[in-house]
Write a structure and sequence with these properties.
This protein has 1 helix and 10 strands, in the order αββββββββββ. The chain has a single domain (3-146), classed as Immunoglobulins (Immunoglobulin-like), CATH 2.60.40. The chain starts with a helix and ends with a strand. It has one helix at residues 3-27, and strands at 39-45, 48-49, 54-59, 70-73, 79-81, 94-101, 104-105, 112-113, 131-134, 139-146. The protein is α+β, with helices and mostly antiparallel strands and 150 residues long. Helices cover 17% and strands 31% of the residues. This is Carboxypeptidase regulatory-like domain-containing protein.
Length: 150
């Protein structure tokens, strides 16, 4: 990718992330932040790193509606660090199912979406095989391998 193409993508990513974090601040303006624990890993799709792949933690515990969303985007090497309140801070303690969507960032409006390159295969928490239990120690999920093939 040329240098001129990387800069708009970085700007769009920054704009998108700021929007997500502002949304969390608006939803929980007066309440105390719950503690979070770092959660990180790597995603490979068909054996290769997947850049801009969305990783979401779907809570599987009571009072989940009171917890803000925890999610991340992969970098060019497929690495991600889950964020809840600020970049890479992790997720609140609890059990989660991981969901994945591999879209793209619209450079004009900074929105993430478009067709899912994973064809929706990993979008539903109910059918997710990827689980994580977050406690008070950092969690390394290692390498998560996904496929575009059936």
């Amino acid at each position: 990718m040329s240098r001129s193409m990387r800069c708009p993508a970085a700007v769009a990513t920054a704009v998108f992330c700021v929007g997500i974090f502002q949304g969390c601040a608006e939803k929980f303006p007066d309440g105390p932040r719950v503690p979070t624990t770092p959660v990180a890993g790597v995603v490979l799709v068909d054996g290769k790193p997947a850049e801009y792949l969305s990783v979401s933690c779907e809570p599987q515990f009571e009072r989940a509606a009171e917890i803000p969303g925890a999610s991340a985007f992969t970098d060019k090497d497929g690495k991600f660090a889950i964020s809840t309140f600020e970049a890479g801070d992790g997720a609140p303690p609890g059990k989660y199912k991981l969901t994945f969507m591999w879209g793209q960032i619209n450079l004009l409006n900074g929105q993430y979406g478009g067709p899912d390159k994973l064809k929706g295969r990993y979008r539903k928490a109910a059918s997710s095989e990827h689980e994580v239990t977050v406690g008070d120690q950092p969690v390394d999920l290692g390498t998560i391998e996904l496929t575009t093939k059936k």
